[in-house]
Structures are given as structure tokens and as C-alpha cells.
Amino acid sequence: KEAMAPKKVLVTGVYGLIAGAVYRHLQAQSDRYDAYGLARRSQPSERVPKEGKLEIPEDKFILADLANYSAVAKAIEGMDVVVQLAADPRPDASWESLLGSNIVGPRNVLEAAHSTGIERVVFASSIMVSWGYQQEDPYKAIAEGRFDDIDVDELHTITHEWPHRPTSLYPASKIWGEALARYYADVHKMSVPCLRIGWVNAEDHPRDERGGAIWCSQRDVVQLIQRTIEAPEDLRFDIFYGVSNNRWCWVDIDHPREVLGYIPADSAEEKLGLA
């Protein structure tokens, strides 16, 4: 039986924290993946630890700005999957920065993918599209660390079917990305699953139990992305929260388990010695 050729996967924003971890993981499985990286500059972002330097072969790296459509179309031609992680991730990012990175960029990636026949784009959204729920209890109590005030029976897990509640322009830009994903899935029959990723940090460790509610380990976010890359072809559009198995997790991680087989390996409490 003829062996399957490795799947060509382009990771955008490859010098970012999450994208770098994903690229490294795919690169280590060269029998399964032919990994490429794209970024608009060839040095790690300020969020990436110094020791986390990527070794990307010259022929596997594309220097391009996602706001430049022709550069994007050229970069992704011939890929099997694009993992769209490039973005300005700052909650206080300016409109000017978000416009190019988070509005025009994702549109260019999806339009180029459609035009060149790429059937799957994994879109990185953010848990922050649901941030506004923390303005009221019991989610506010979790955010403030008032765990004794929480009635577990009233802690309804927020699912992907609940309305968006952004509290700044950054998550609002991610909602635009999710809407684009739905459009390309429905109208152009592409597969564009969206991942509402939680708090991934360079230390790979929650700072406290309060922040641990939304924490996602690097190992878990990489697993989630790989499972989404490998999801069945008939997965057109869906939304999955990406956080670890934390005690005070207030978003639904059963849905990615049921659809993708995602089972978080880490929890904030274990990392904090509270388990």
C-alpha cells in the first residue's frame, strides 16, 4: 500500500507563542506533516521566551504581511491546511493595528484559500469573545476569586451557542473572523472550524487559581489544534473553546471532546499544587 504523503500545513504568525508551539509540534512529526511558517517579521514576538527560538528551514518560511492579498495567495498555494494564528493579540490594541492584522488579514487568508482550492482553514478566535459574562455572577465571582460565593448548581457552562459578549475591539475583531468562517463554510463549502483559545502564557503555568479558570497549557492548545487539523472532512463550521481541565472553567470543553476527541492533559489546580 502506497504511503500517504505528509500533509502540507502552513502556520501563520509562526513566531508567536502559540503558533511557534504548533509549528514545533508538527515539524517533529515529519512523516505526517510538511510544516511551513509565515510571519511578517523573522523574529519571535515579545511574548515568546528567549529559549523558545524556532529553527525553521529557509525553504519552509514565508515572510509576508497578511494585509497583502497577493503575498498571501502566493504563500498558501499548494497547502492542504492553513492554521490562521496570525493576529494582534493585545486586548488594548489600536483600531489601526487590528484593522490590518485581525480584519483584513483573516479575510485575505480565507479568500486566497477559497481561490486556490484549500479546503480547510483552522481559525484562531479567543475566549475573550465571551468576556462580558464576567460582569455578572457567578462568572464575576470566579474572575474575582470569590469561590466561596459560588453556587455550583448555578454555574451554567457557557457554550458556543451563547451570544458573543466582547468588551473591547480585540475580541470584536475575532467575532468578525468567526463570521467570515461561517460565510466561507456555508457559501464556499470550505471547512473553517474556529477555536476560542483561552489564556496561554510563556511560563506555561497559571499565576493563581482565579486566572487558572481560563488558562490553557501549551500542550493542550497544541493538541486541540492538531485534532482540528485532523478532523473529518465533513466538519464545515463549528466553534470550540480551548482551555485546560480547570476546576473553575466556565466555558464548555465537552463539545470539543465529543466532536474532536480533545481531552485536556493539564489543569490549573495540578500546576498550582491544589489538586
List the helices and strands and how they pair.
Elements: E1 7-12, H1 17-27, E2 33-39, E3 61-63, H2 69-76, E4 81-84, H3 95-116, E5 120-126, H4 139-144, H5 169-188, E6 194-197, H6 209-212, H7 218-229, E7 239-242, H8 254-260, H9 268-272
Parallel strand pairs: 1-2, 1-4, 2-3, 4-5, 5-6, 6-7
Provide keyphrases for this structure:
275 residues; alpha/beta
> What spatial order of strands do you see in the largest sheet?
3-2-1-4-5-6-7
The overall strand count is 7
Terminal CA distance reads: 47 Å
Instruction: Name the shape in a single word.
Output: globular
Helix-residue proportion: 25-40%
**Overall pLDDT confidence:** 95
**Major β-sheet, in short?**
7 strands, parallel
Number of helical segments with 4 or more residues: 9
Percentage of β-strand residues = 5-15%
- The SSE order reads EHEEHEHEHHEHHEHH
Helix and strand content put the structural class at alpha/beta
Computed over alpha carbons, the radius of gyration is: 18 Å
